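Example 4.3 (complexes with small molecules)
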Amino acid sequence: QKIYHHHQIDSTNKEAKKLAAAGEKEGTIVISEEQLAGRGRLGRTWVSPPQTGIWMSVILRPPISPADASKITLIAGLAVCEGIQAVTGLPAQIKWPNDIVLHNKKICGILTEMSAEMEKVNYIILGIGINVNINSFPEDIKNTATSLKIEGEKDYDRKEIVKAILTNLEKYYEAYLNKQDLEDLLEKYKRHCLTLGKEVKIIHRNEEFIGKAVDLSEEGELVVEKQDGQVVTVFSGEVSV
Ligand code: BTN
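Answer. The structure with biotin bound is encoded below.
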C-alpha cells in the first residue's frame, strides 16, 4: 500500500482522484501537511493550515453499486469517530451522515467523491479532514468549528490518530464487503450518533422541513418523523440540529 505524503498541495481529494483515474490501486493514501484549496461539501472550502490537521484521502474500489456508495461514508464516519475517541479520550460524536463533532462543534468533515460506470463503482475518493492542533478559526466558522486541541487543551500526535483511523477503516470496510450487511456497523454508529432523537431541519429534494430524527434504516438512511406525523427516510441532504 502506498502513501503519498505532501508538504503542500491544492487538495488531497483532487490529487487522489487524478491517481485513481490513472489506475492507482485501492488502499493508496494521499496526505498533505497543508492544503491550499481544500474542498468541503456543497462547494465550500475547507480551511487546511500547515502541520495542524489531518488532510488525507483514501482511494477505494469497492465492488458495489453506486447506490450503495453513501454507506462507505457512514463507515468512514464511524472509523473516524472511534479513532478520535480511542486516541484522545474526548467524547467525539457523529452528526449524521458524516460530520464528527465535539461538544456540538465540528472537528472533522468527510467528502466522498465517486466515479462510476455501467452501474459499478470505479473508484471512491474518501477525503477526511480533521482539525487537530489548530488554535483558532476564521470569524465566519468560529462558532461552528473547533479542534481537538481547543477541546482537549493539549497537542495531539497526528500520526497516532491517522493510524487508529486507518485501522478502524480497514476493519469496518472489510466487514461490510464480506457481509454486505450494515447491521453491526449501524448498531455501533447509532451509539455515537448525536442526531437521533433530535429535531432536525432537512433540505431534501428541494424541499425544506423540520422533523424529529427517530432512527436509522437498515440501509443507513435517516428516518425522520415530520410534524404532520408522516415518516420519511432521507439519505443525503443537509441536516442541522
Ligand atoms: C465537509 O465539508 O464537511 C467535508 C470536508 C472534507 C475535507 C477533506 S481534507 C482532505 C480532503 N481533501 C479535500 O480537499 N477535502 C477533503
